[in-house]
Write a structure and sequence with these properties.
With 426 residues, this protein is mostly helical. The chain has 22 helices and no strands.
């Protein structure tokens, strides 16, 4: 009963647009006050939440992505992909998807990827026959590959919550992340077949491809170095994040000679702002997680959902709908921190591997980042491209359908996420 009132207070605070971290802290204080629990537990729990070596990878991967964008690596990837794919119908749309894949292997931060893609590609796509809303949609959906294709900030947080290997999670997300790109390309081709939009194929010479490929060599190698070291067991995810930062500094400063004190300061500033927001929510959620355990909420969720149905297919459908709804109205980190501890026992009871569950959760929450009313990726791209959210939503319908198909595939075909880790790590 006490938790019901606490949950209601949290919902009210969120509706009133109180910052989530402060809302979580406030409801924790209220609970401890009425339960006559010493308030000293809150600061001790907050400190415990921040003392985690795996979570150190979050600011490091964000910094690596910011350095990559500041030093022109993203533009080099875009030019190379353009030269290689412009001969394909709808080439620029495919270019954005491929660049999104390559960027996903460096930062794991969807917002940074979405902003970079929108700045470098939407104007060019509009010049070549793509309606501006559709170009914005392609950039936003391409950015969703960032938290699926390793490295991934969402996977780092999930592994910390669920007590599973972050390396295994990283590898598990590779195929689903690539499938996002494949489904997007198929959707673009279908739109072109119906002659609704798109640019005409443009022939490019082998010399152009080789020239742009040489210029993009170091950015392309970056995810190979990071992911290769993780897969080979040479370094952990956190060590890989540090190596990614050093790599970006060396390439941007020594090889490209584009890095200066101003750009480094801008990258550090953006990293501090982004990672501080994430870590503040992580820290504030820890006392709330203690409340969940004290009130036996996970056990209650398990009993309630299994009372509805014991069929795994039905239960997975219910969980997906819940995650989609929460992803639409809350920030992804907050949903992870609140929901994962509650749903893990349920997933275990129906035989869902926690690694697969991590991919299911991430895919659902990513769709929420492109869907109103929260839709952080949608708002980020629309603010850069000056496209209304209504126009964005109309253009996004085919891509929503494709993403929902991907979620079904990840949910009901475990091999999509579990096969690659079993091959590379077992």
């Amino acid at each position: 009963m006490m938790f019901g009132w606490i949950l209601l207070l949290l919902i009210v605070l969120i509706v009133l647009r109180v910052r989530l971290a402060f809302a979580l802290l406030l409801v924790s204080l209220v609970y401890f006050w009425f339960a006559d629990i010493p308030n000293q537990i809150i600061p001790s729990r907050i400190m415990a939440a921040t003392q985690s070596f795996p979570l150190l990878a979050i600011p490091l991967f964000i910094l690596a992505g910011n350095l990559m964008n500041k030093t022109g690596m993203t533009e080099r990837l875009f030019r190379f992909s353009t030269a290689a794919l412009r001969s394909v119908p709808g080439g620029l749309g495919h270019v954005v998807v491929v660049v999104g894949m390559l960027m996903a292997g460096t930062s794991g931060a969807a917002i940074a990827d979405a902003a970079a893609l929108a700045r470098i590609s939407v104007d060019e796509m509009e010049k070549n026959g793509y309606p501006r809303p559709l170009g914005s949609v392609i950039c936003a959906f391409a950015a969703t590959m960032g938290p699926l294709i390793p490295p991934s900030i969402m996977f780092i947080i999930f592994s910390w919550l669920a007590g599973v290997s972050v390396n295994r999670l990283f590898i598990a997300g590779a195929i689903p992340g690539l499938l996002v790109g494949v489904f997007m390309m198929i959707t673009i081709l279908i739109l072109l077949r119906n002659k609704r939009t798109g640019d005409a194929p443009v022939r490019t010479t082998l010399a152009e491809i080789l020239t742009t490929g040489r210029a993009a060599f170091w950015p392309i190698i970056m995810p190979v170095v990071v992911l290769g070291g993780i897969i080979a067991g040479i370094f952990t995810a956190t060590e890989a994040a540090a190596i990614a930062v050093v790599y970006a500094l060396l390439v941007g400063g020594v090889i490209f000679r584009k890095l200066n004190a101003t750009l480094v300061w801008e990258a550090l500033h953006e990293t501090v702002v982004t990672s501080s927001a994430i870590m503040l929510i992580v820290a504030a959620s820890y006392p709330f997680g203690w409340i969940l355990s004290a009130e036996q909420v996970p056990q209650g969720v398990l009993a309630y959902t299994t009372g509805i149905s014991e069929n795994p297919i039905v239960l997975l459908l219910i969980v997906n709908l819940m995650l989609l709804l929460l992803g639409m109205i809350m920030e992804t980190t907050a949903v992870l921190l609140i929901v994962v501890p509650m749903l893990l026992p349920l997933m275990s009871s129906i035989g869902v591997d926690p690694i697969q569950f991590g991919v299911i959760v991430s895919a659902n929450l990513l769709l929420g980042t492109i869907t109103p009313p929260f839709g952080i990726l949608m708002f980020t791209v629309c603010s850069i491209t000056n496209v209304s959210t209504v126009a964005f939503q109309k253009a996004a319908i085919p891509f929503y359908i494709a993403f929902l198909l991907l979620i079904c595939l990840v949910t009901y075909v475990p091999a999509v996420s579990l096969w690659l880790p079993s091959v590379l790590l077992d």
